[in-house]
Amino acid sequence: MTNMQVGGDWNTILTALLWLVFMLYMLSDLPQKTQFMRYEKGVAVRLGVLEGLVKESISKVKSYLVKLGVSSVDALVNSTLENYFAIEPVSIEPTDIIKRLDHIITVNEDKFKGDLRKAMPNIGRHMLNNIAVSLAVTSALYTVYKILRHYYLLGKKYENWILLMQLYIALPQIVRELLPYVRAVETFAKGIPIGDSAGPMVAFKLVGLSPRIDIEEDTVYSVVELEGRKVYVIKAKGPGATVGKPGKAVAKIAEMLSYNISRIITVDAALKLEGEPTGLVAEGSGAAIGDVGPEKIEIERVAVRCGAPLDAVIVKMSNEEAIKPMVKEIVEGVEKAYQMVLEIIRNRTKPGDNVVVVGIGNTVGVY
Amino acid sequence: MMLMQSDIITVLLIAIVIGLLAYLIKSSLDYSKERKEIMEKESRPVKIIAVASCQQNDYTMEREFREGDFIGKIDGACPKCGSQMIIIKIYSLYMETPQKSFKLQLR
Ligand SMILES: [Zn+2]
Predict the structure, then answer these.
(1) Which of residues B11, B26, B42 is at a domain's end?
(2) How remote is the CA of residue B47 from the centroid of ligand 1, in Å?
(3) What is the ipTM of this complex?
(4) Looking at beta carbons, which residues of chain B come within 8 Å of A181?
(5) How far is the CA of B84 from the centre of ligand 1 (A)?
(6) DSSP code for B67
(7) Domain count of chain B?
(8) How far, in Å, CA of A141 to CA of A60, rounded?
(9) Is the pLDDT of residue A204 over 60?
(10) Which residue does chain B place closest to A280, by CA atoms?
(11) B48 and A325 in contact by Cβ < 8 A?
(12) Is residue B76 included in any domain, yes or no?
């Protein structure tokens, strides 16, 4: 055998092989099949990550409940994960839709908290609120996981590779966005203030430790004198994790003052745009509150009825920062927002006026 | 001359095939790595600080957050004047890599 012959043999085999690969690639649907397999595998791996996260948050909630001495933890958590959905009211007939929506939300919440109280009768209100929010976060995570799994299994069942491709592309972002919620379960259970507590924290800075007067479920107000103005500061009742019912509280205060209010200021955390710095404070008009509607509309209606300007002071942060333990930039933003509220009261109201300030947001870890 | 040329092509083809095989193995390993990567990105060390201040504003104290702390909690007495210490801030420290692009800010 000569070198020439060996080289030639290898050459022929390799060339034939490359031709074969080329033909398979160009003339068969093998590339599509492999791509489908790749999407399927990628989605499966990421769903696995998500499953691990959901399991992690479920076991965290369970371990907290066990630590609190709750009996039949498994049954309680499992029933919370599946139940308490709310059905949107009919919207093609808009008459009193807000009332109906509010009714459904309130009834669902009462049912949830009532069941929790029954399961753990010896636990204080604040701890109960912390547990309720932790359970709600876990339930939301579980729901997202169930929906994604549904589409994955559908895509696999019907070999719908467009469905799997969409999941494959969207899942990395979804997983990254859900991660802070997994951490939030622990944060809420421990009662650490989060970014969304910016509004209640501004309210705290205004009133300090002055007495909190109950006005609505989980909602309190305090009255402070500020250079001759009477300032009614409304916030959720801390330090448990709750957002309270600030809209209804504003309505009640307005009724109490027979609609003699000269300014309403709402302070809330707001979503920043990607690239904007965290803790940036901005001022605008309107009710700064991110509920589905019932609370916001109450504030707007009161403002219109009193003829009072409605100021919005916002502290900007990302979605993730809103549910993570509060970072230093937001604490600095809270200070700035507090100064801005003081300035608004000093410059745009007169001594003797009644001013309402509402600290919107979850008051976890803030008295 | 003929012999040299065919040898070069052979070596080249073998190199391409080996390269493709290596890429195949690498891309299938990427999936198992991903899970670890996602978890690593999140588990940055976090430290939560509670700042307490005296009501007379003459003394502030920083310490690590303990379960049960909240903003507005009375936290002992001031070592200087003896009035109440109140927790006024609770914040967390993250180990984060700052991003250096598009830094135009108005404030
Ligand atoms: Zn002191």
Answers:
(1) B42
(2) 26
(3) 0.79
(4) none
(5) 7
(6) T
(7) 2
(8) 13
(9) yes
(10) B107
(11) yes
(12) yes
Touching B: A residues 87-146, CB under 8 Å: none
Q: pLDDT, tens digit, for every residue of A249-307?
A: 999 999 999 999 999 999 999 999 988 999 999 999 999 898 888 899 999 999 999 99
Is the Cβ pair B94, A327 closer than 8 Å? Answer: yes
Contacts of A17 in chain B (CB under 8 A): 17
State the average pLDDT for chain A: 89
And the tokens for A112? 């949830």
pLDDT digit string, tens, across residues A71-107: 888 888 888 888 888 888 888 888 888 889 889 988 9
Mean pLDDT of the A30-58 span: 88
pLDDT of residue A147: 94
Question: Same domain, yes or no, for B55 and B87?
Answer: yes
The length of chain A, given as a count of residues: 367
Q: Kindly give the distance from the C-alpha atom of residue A228 to the centroid of ligand 1, in angstroms, as a whole number.
A: 28
Q: How far apart are CA A192 and CA A274, in angstroms?
A: 25
**DSSP element (H, E) containing A284:** strand A281-285
Q: Does domain A195-359 fall into CATH 3.40.50.1470?
A: yes
Q: How far is A367 from chain B (nearest CA, A)?
A: 5
Verify that B32 and B60 share a domain, yes or no: no
Q: What is the pTM of this model?
A: 0.83
Residues of the domain holding B51 = 46-94
Mean pLDDT confidence for B38-49:
68
Contact B107 A280 (CB under 8 A): yes
* Cα A146 from Cα A133, distance rounded (Å): 20
**Which of A190, A325, A365 lies closest to B71 in CB terms?**
A365
Q: Name the pLDDT band for A354 (thresholds 50, 70, 90).
A: very high
Give the per-residue pLDDT at A183.
85
